[in-house]
Amino acid sequence: MTVSSVQGFILTPQGFVRGALHHDAGRITRVEGVTVSESEVRNGRDALPIVLPGFIDTHVHGGGGRDTMEAGDAIQSIARMHARHGTTSLLATTMTAPLEEIRAAMAALGPACKARVKNGARVLGVHLEGPYINPGKLGAQPDFAKPASIDEIQALNALAPIRVITMAPEMPGYLPLINELRAAGFVVQIGHTAGSYEEGVAALEQGARGFTHLFNAMTGLHHREPGMAGAALAHAQFAEVIPDLLHVHPGALRVALRSIPCLFCVTDSTSAAGMPDGEYRLGRHTVTKCMGGVRLPDGTLAGSTLTMDQALRNLVQQLGLEIEDASRRVSTYAADYMGVQDRGRLGAGAWADLAIVDRDLKLQRIFVEGEEIELGD
Questions:
Q1: DSSP H or E segment with residue 11
Q2: What CA–CA distance (Å, rounded) separates 224 from 174?
Q3: Could you give the dihedral angle defined by the CA atoms of residues 295, 217, 194 and 166, in that order, rounded to the nearest 10 degrees?
Q4: Strand 5-12 and strand 15-24: pairing?
Q5: Contact by Cβ (8 Å): 91, 58
Q6: Sign of the dihedral defined by the CA atoms of residues 71, 121, 349, 40, in that order
Q7: Is 209 helix (H, G, I), strand (E, B) or coil?
Q8: CA angle 145, 76, 365 (to 5 degrees)
Q9: How many CA atoms lie within 13 Å of 108's alpha carbon, on the beta-carbon side?
Q10: How far lies 344's CA from each of 42, 50, 70, 79, 332, in Å?
Q11: Can you give the pTM of this predicted structure?
């Protein structure tokens, strides 16, 4: 169902207004109302709905029992499941695998990047998380890391648009390749890396733009060896983080929030997201969901079951962020990171991607490009 306007406390780039947001043909035409404080939004007499920019997730492996590496129609189920949790656009994320499996997954993702899935999130493109990573820092990635080449990446990009590439900059030849990929229009981020602080700084100087799931699968911070995490905390403008309070301790999240201006949230969600406890697929791996987490048989964390609406609640209710700040970290900063100017903000000309919540930040309604999403299973 499509409607022409929504009422409530609307978060604009200038702050909250009490009023109405109007949209037509999927785009916001105008926002009108009176400026109000966040205190009034949260504590005032009028318990109006809160209208936020729809969430943007740049790291999605699966959901609803389906995995991006399955190929076929898996992305349809994944996009619908995440839309029901307020994610209005996402990057389908691959796993390290033999090249033919990555090609098959990319070929299946291509059509979904061209035409939006009915009742689902917009798939903006692909996050190529592997195979150009350090085989010594696989995390939950299967052991198929391989050398990168721009020709191979361009061939994959012809199958489905690659928006983000995770790379380990310490691997031979990767520093100049990062600069070449940046010049070709790809966003390169640092992850699954055993690199040093110095190698992280060098990668940023070559054009790497961010870090993949900060703190996870990278060298940690020590006061005499700052590691890749130290490079991120000291120099990064952008970085992903998984705020499920399992992958990263709340104290470390607070450090990152104080250090990285545009720290943004991702789910790193697996096929187990939105599903009961049990066994699920993550690329070539079988993973087990239990006690709120997803793990390999040896206990290694293997992605998450996080959804972006829960990420928002964790930021506000567990870490104490203002709603406006938290909203930027589940939406606006990810759009800025990818250079997308018409999503992640509520203003004239932007897509009508809306996450409408109550004062407890529970979802009430979701719109993707002006279409209201059905919240039922």
A1: strand 5-12
A2: 25
A3: 110
A4: antiparallel
A5: yes
A6: negative
A7: coil
A8: 120
A9: 20
A10: 21, 15, 29, 17, 4
A11: 0.96
- Using CA of residue 175, residue 177, residue 178, residue 182, what is the dihedral sign? positive
Q: What is the mean pLDDT of each run of 10 residues along the chain (377 residues)?
A: 81 97 97 96 92 98 95 94 98 97 96 94 97 95 95 98 98 97 98 98 98 98 97 98 96 98 97 92 89 87 93 98 98 98 98 98 97 83
Class of the CATH domain delimited by 54-344? alpha beta
Q: What phi and psi, each to the nearest 5 degrees, are found at residue 149?
A: -145, 145
The 10 Å Cβ neighbour count of residue 339 is: 10
- Cβ neighbors of 59 (< 8 A, separation 6 or more) are 91, 93, 127, 129, 212, 213, 240, 266, 267, 268, 269
d(CA 28, CA 41): 22
CA atoms within 13 A on the CB side of 298: 4
Domain ranges in the chain? 5-51+358-372, 54-344
Q: Which of 57, 67, 244, 268 is catalytic?
A: 268
Q: Which residues contact 275 (CB under 8 A, 6 or more apart)?
A: 64, 65, 289, 305
Residue 268 bears catalytic tag: yes
How far apart (Å, rounded) are the C-alpha atoms in residues 56 and 248? 20
Task: Provide the H-helix boundaries in the chain.
Answer: 38-43, 74-83, 99-114, 150-157, 174-183, 197-205, 227-235, 250-259, 308-313, 323-327, 333-338
